[in-house]
Amino acid sequence: MKMILLLLLVAYIGENNKAVTSFHIQYKGDLSCDGERIVYLDMDNYTKEDVAKCKARDSIVMAYVSSQFESWRDDASQFRWADTGKKLDDWQGEKWVNPYSENVKKIMIARIKRAKALGFNGVDFDNTDFYHFETGFDSSKEAAVDYTQFLIDESHKQGMFYSLKNSMDIIPELKRVDYYQGESCHKYKECHMYDVTNRPVFIIEYRRCPRSKKLYENAYTVKKKVSMTPKYKVCK
Predict the structure, then answer these.
(1) Beta strands 179-183 and 161-165: pairing type?
(2) Can you give the pLDDT at residue 5?
(3) Half-sphere exposure (Cβ direction) of 7: Cα atoms closer than 13 Å
(4) What residue segments make up the domains of the chain, in order of their start?
(5) Coil, helix or strand for 79?
(6) Which residues on adjacent β-strands are paired with residue 221?
(7) Global pTM value
(8) Which residue among 26, 107, 129, 157 is buried most deeply as judged by most CB within 10 Å?
(9) In the chain, which residue ranges form alpha helices assigned H by DSSP?
């Protein structure tokens, strides 16, 4: 049965590789999906009915999920004291987690299964680039690769796509990523780090759209507000 699901997933990915030409992302506000090929929604802020509405417009809908601890999420009480470390800079109520904790992994698997139950096609785990920070745990690139690959593998086991958010430094070490989503790579001159990928890349810029001649040609780029409300502008 698992092999059948895997083959179907691979076939679906291959079928949709060249068809992905647009995307939309929002974490709050009234649902707005207008037939974009990929739609990213915060898993806790939208309902199963919302997901179905976007899918009815032929969108692949991805669930935004944190790979870390967030105090306001329903599963916050499931983290043990030893699972959480230092606070994330500038993000109140968020803490880094131990990437090797079996309890943390159990919670992440439950998040993937919940996304599937809500009808999402895949997951978009945030904050896997913890190698840039002091977390209170092993924050090496090796630990990030191990943790992220675990999330990728578990997502695929559930028949879900996996979208890698940022974490460009470890892209060459990861296997079977389906989509890539990056923030401000034009601003920080990092878009070239996606050159090694052969999957769709979606870029969000917050300050302004780059001039057309400076756009990373292998990606679909939009300008958004940090608040992630529905409004966006396609960068051309």
Answers:
(1) parallel
(2) 39
(3) 4
(4) 26-234
(5) coil
(6) 203
(7) 0.91
(8) 26
(9) 2-16, 48-56, 102-117, 141-157
Q: Give pLDDT tens digits for 103-161.
A: 999 999 999 999 999 999 999 999 999 999 999 999 999 999 999 999 999 999 999 99
Residue 141 CA to residue 196 CA, distance in Å, equals 18
Relative to beta strand 69-70, strand 201-205 is: unpaired
The 10 Å Cβ neighbour count of residue 234 is 13
What pairing do the DSSP bridges indicate for beta strands 38-42 and 161-165? Answer: unpaired
Question: CA 61 from chain center: how many Å?
Answer: 11
Q: Say which residue the tokens 């606070």 belong to.
A: 87
DSSP-assigned letter for residue 211: P
For the chain, the residue count is 236
Sign of CA dihedral 207, 212, 218, 222: positive
pLDDT in tens, 148-171: 999 999 999 999 999 999 999 999
Q: Using alpha carbons only, what angle is made at residue 119 by residues 104 and 43, rounded to the nearest 5 degrees?
A: 50
Q: Which CATH superfamily is domain 26-234 in?
A: Aldolase class I (3.20.20.70)
Q: Interior CA angle at 95 toward 89 and 99, to 5°?
A: 120
Torsion of CA 123, 148, 141, 203, to 10 degrees: -20
